[in-house]
Amino acid sequence: MADCYDIEAAIDARLDNIATQYREAPQFLHLIRTYAREAGQITEALCSLPSFFDLDTAVGEQLTFIGRRMGWGRCHCVCNITPVFGFECEGVPSENLLGGFCDEAVTWEDCGPFGSSELCINDDEVYRSFLKVRRYQFLALYDLESLTQAVRTFWGDTAMVLDAGYGRVVIAPGRPLEAHENLLLQLYPRVLPIAPGLRVRFHFGDIRVFGFGEGWGEFCEDAVEHNLQTGELEELITEGSVEISTGPQGTDAEWMCEIDVKPYDCAA
Q1: What is the pTM assigned to this prediction?
Q2: Are 82 and 99 in contact (CB under 8 A)?
Q3: Long-range pairs for 13-21 at CB < 8 Å and ≥24 separation?
Q4: What would the 3-class secondary structure string for the chain be?
Q5: What tens-digit pLDDT sequence spans the chain (268 residues)?
Q6: Are residues 160 and 103 in the same domain?
Q7: Quick one: how far is CA 200 from the chain centroid?
Q8: Contact, 87 vs 81, CB < 8 A?
Q9: Which domain holds residue 92?
């Protein structure tokens, strides 16, 4: 039942308008109550209709309808990259689709002659996250706070705006992306609330990036403090009165690697 409309209260309000001489006619009152109830049920249905198209709760076709009204459907053309044999650097997606000796060919449904394919977001929760981010873009909310909330909608609390300036914005998911997230790389920049004219770049490594000033990493960072991927620290051994390290006790902060995922361009 919709909270925005009370059928019984509406019927009583109509009955109060009946002239006094007709209030002792039960059959007439029953007739009025019956027709008023049917009209009230229609009003109640119309009143509850928006609840079926709430961005937080809509599913299936209802969610698809919202997306179309927001200018972001479920299916989009992306680059269809031919798989090549190679090895991927840890934490850094390759611009090519890499495969091994035993990998099967990747099948795509071609939608054009220029190496493009149609990619559809069938999962409601993934699609919902795109629509929530699209809402920021739709309202032209180009401030840093809105962009931060948008990237965290995609990748969680680890995501951040790593750097900005010089006509570009660098986004960092802050964690390794899952396989389905890598497939959507070209779609993320299309909905992020970034002002027209600014370039979007991604940093896929550790968010402790080398730089100068507060918040930036340095040479020989402490591996434990910053949880850098250096493996287990090796113990110190003592030879006479001199302590000798059997391995590195830290590692340099990563360099920021700005990757262009080419959201609209299939050129190499």
Answers
A1: 0.60
A2: no
A3: none
A4: CCCCCCHHHHHHHHHCCCCHHHCCCHHHHHHHHHHHHHHHHHHHHHHHHHHHHCCCCCCHHHHHHHHHHCCCCCEEEEECCCCEECCCCCCCCCCCCEECCCCCCCCCCECCCCCEEEEECCCHHHHHHHHHHHHHHHCCCCCHHHHHHHHHHHHCCCCEEEEEECCEEEEECCCCCCHHHHHCCCCHHHHCCCCCCCEEEECCCCCCEECCCCCCECCCEECCCCCCCCCCCCCEEEECCEEEECCCCEECCECCCCECCCCCCCCC
A5: 446 777 788 787 777 777 777 777 888 888 888 888 888 777 777 776 667 778 898 889 999 999 999 999 999 988 765 455 555 555 555 545 555 555 443 434 444 444 677 889 999 999 999 999 999 999 999 999 999 999 999 999 989 888 888 899 989 898 888 888 988 999 999 999 999 999 999 988 766 664 544 545 545 555 444 443 444 444 444 555 554 444 444 555 566 678 888 888 765 4
A6: yes
A7: 15
A8: no
A9: 60-202
- Whether 90 is covered by a domain: the verdict is yes
Query: What phi, psi does 253 have (nearest 5°)?
Result: -65, 150
Note whether 45 and 90 are same-domain residues: no
The reply to whether 153 and 170 lie within a common domain is yes
Do 31 and 145 share a domain, yes or no?
A: no
Classify residue 264: in a domain, yes or no.
no
Q: Are residues 163 and 232 in the same domain?
A: no
Q: Please give the Cα distance from 97 to 109 (Å, whole number).
A: 16
